[in-house]
Design brief:
By secondary structure, the protein is of the alpha/beta class. About 40% of the residues lie in helices and about 15% in strands. The protein contains 14 helices and eleven strands. The chain is globular, with a radius of gyration of 22 Å.
Length: about 375
């Protein structure tokens, strides 16, 4: 397999850059399979470009950054994120009422070329059992195309975005329904990746924020925003899935054995599966794909932003918003032994191309050296 670092050409009139082996850690780059042209070269403009991300991997920052720099709107599969005052969602395409939906239909223009569109795809449910979150490429793609939106309650039985002549004035008059759009609308993709340890702890922090909004004081006391609280929460989540995992034929004994050593092991499985399937789906759809590691915003902010804008053929109309790097949680929230086991699991589950993209997060050698030094010290 060729290296994932390859030449990237972003549009006929756009700048070009070469992501070589030496600098690919600080710049986004084209995926191995990435073609130069969209699958439907005759598709009308604007065209849909997915922002594909496992939850809490930098999605919100990327969406906000592109919006502020360009002054243009993006889109989303998820209608609850862009509800109008009358309770309605505005689809990006007139002939696709089931989505995606315009994030800022009233105060920002739609890009003339590619519209970045948020999707989290499937296989990400934290409260689901093993049999529920293991996906096939087909079911994963289906989830990438799905979302939801509001329709008048009187027409709620007309699913998938059927337009209604009813006039409503508020959200209370609306009902939320699931919807889906045609895969042929998708012409490009950005694949966002974050360090798995930081990604998983950020999912815990999101759960914290949700419980704070709901004033769930008992939950917050049981699982405080600390390393200990995270470990306790993982213990609770791992315990819920123990029976399903013990009896399942969907995983082998090696995975089962590693699960016992890893807090929030289900999320490490979901994380790795998600990136495997994301790469497979964009290759099956023949989508030009830009790989963006979230950490690149910290290492080379200007270069990373330029790469995203060039790939989407978007203008830079405004100054860059400040990027404030988040904390690194791997050494704070996980023990060295837990990290080693988690990295072994990810390496075991990851497809070849997936591992090429995740290998930068592998510090197994350093962890093993530390363990050897500690063992030698204790034996003195």
């Amino acid at each position: 397999m060729a290296s994932v670092a390859a030449m990237a050409a972003f549009g006929k009139n756009a700048r070009q850059f070469v992501a070589t082996v030496s600098d690919s850690s600080t710049l986004p780059f084209r995926a191995v399979h990435s073609p130069e042209d969209d699958p439907d070269a005759s598709a009308p403009w604007p065209r849909l470009a997915w922002l594909m991300s496992f939850p809490n991997s930098g999605t919100s920052f990327t969406m906000k950054m592109v919006g502020r720099v360009t002054g243009l709107t993006a889109a989303t599969n998820y209608g609850k994120e862009c509800v109008e005052k009358d309770g309605k969602n505005i689809p990006l395409f007139d002939d696709s009422p089931g989505g995606p939906f315009i994030l800022h239909p009233n105060d920002r223009e739609i890009p003339q070329r590619y519209v970045m569109t948020k999707t989290h795809c499937g296989g990400r449910c934290q409260t689901c059992g093993l049999s529920k979150y293991i996906e096939t490429p087909e079911s994963f793609l289906e989830a990438c195309l799905k979302g939801g939106h509001y329709i008048p309650k009187t027409t709620a039985n007309k699913n998938n975005g059927k337009k209604s002549s009813s006039s409503t004035s508020s959200l209370k008059d609306m009902e939320f329904v699931n919807s889906k759009y045609d895969k042929k609308l998708v012409q490009r993709a950005i694949h966002l990746i974050r360090d798995p340890f930081d990604n998983l702890v950020s999912r815990f922090h999101l759960e914290q924020h949700e419980k704070i909004k709901k004033n769930r004081t008992e939950w917050l006391q049981s699982y405080p925003n600390t390393a200990e609280g995270f470990q306790s929460w993982c213990g609770y989540m791992d315990g819920k899935s123990l029976k399903d995992e013990t009896n399942s034929d969907l995983i082998d004994d090696k995975v089962r054995s590693l699960f016992k050593k890893i807090p929030c092991h289900g999320d490490f499985y979901r994380y790795t599966q998600w990136h495997n399937l994301a790469l497979e789906v964009v290759e099956d759809l023949d989508l030009p794909t830009l790989v963006v590691h979230y950490e690149n915003y910290e290492r080379n902010y200007e270069g990373a932003v330029d790469a995203v804008l060039d790939f989407l053929e978007l203008p830079r109309n405004n100054a860059l918003p400040e990027f404030i790097a988040g904390k690194r949680y791997k050494s704070l929230y996980f023990s060295d032994k837990q990290r080693l086991a988690a990295l072994k699991l990810v390496r075991y589950l990851a497809d070849e191309e997936t591992w090429e993209l995740l290998e930068r997060y592998d510090d197994t050698t350093e962890l093993e050296d530390n363990a050897a030094e500690e063992e030698a010290y204790e034996s003195q």
